[in-house]
Design goal:
alpha+beta; Arc Repressor Mutant, subunit A; 12% strand
C-alpha cells in the first residue's frame, strides 16, 4: 500500500522553491564544475560553456544566498574573489550524482520514447 503524506499544500512551497533553484539550467552544472575546487569567476565562466557573465553572477549569488557556495573576497587591487562549495553544497552534489546516473542510464530510452511520441503526434508526410 502506498504511503500517504499528511501535510498542507503550503508545506510544499518552500520545497518547490529550493528544488526550482537547484534544478535550474545552470545551478547543477555550476555545482558540478566547482566540485572540490576553489575557482575564480573567470575560470568558472570559461568552464561553463554558453553561460553569460550576468547569468553566472546571478547563479552564484543565488547559490551563495542559499548557503550552497561560499565566496571569499581578498583585499587586493583589483579584488580577488574565489568561490567554493560549502558543506551543504557538497552534500547536494552527492545527492545529485545518483540522479545524474539515472539520467545517463535512461537517456537513450527517453529519447526513443520522445521520438515515437513526436512521430505519432505529427507523422511525416
Amino acid at each position: 500500500m502506498a504511503k500517504v503524506n499528511h501535510h498542507l499544500p503550503s508545506d510544499c512551497r518552500p520545497i518547490a522553491q529550493i528544488l526550482a533553484r537547484v534544478g535550474d539550467k545552470w545551478s547543477i552544472l555550476l555545482l558540478n564544475v566547482l566540485g572540490d575546487e576553489t575557482m575564480r569567476f573567470k575560470d568558472l565562466h570559461r568552464a561553463m560553456h554558453g553561460i553569460s557573465q550576468r547569468m553566472l553572477t546571478v547563479t552564484l549569488r543565488n547559490l551563495e544566498r542559499d548557503g550552497l557556495i561560499s565566496r571569499t573576497v581578498y583585499p587586493t587591487i583589483p579584488p580577488k574573489v574565489e568561490y567554493r562549495l560549502s558543506d551543504r553544497g557538497r552534500s547536494l552534489r552527492c545527492a545529485i550524482v545518483p540522479l545524474a546516473q539515472w539520467v545517463t542510464d535512461n537517456r537513450p530510452g527517453i529519447e526513443e520514447a520522445q521520438r515515437r511520441f513526436d512521430d505519432e503526434i505529427s507523422p511525416e508526410s
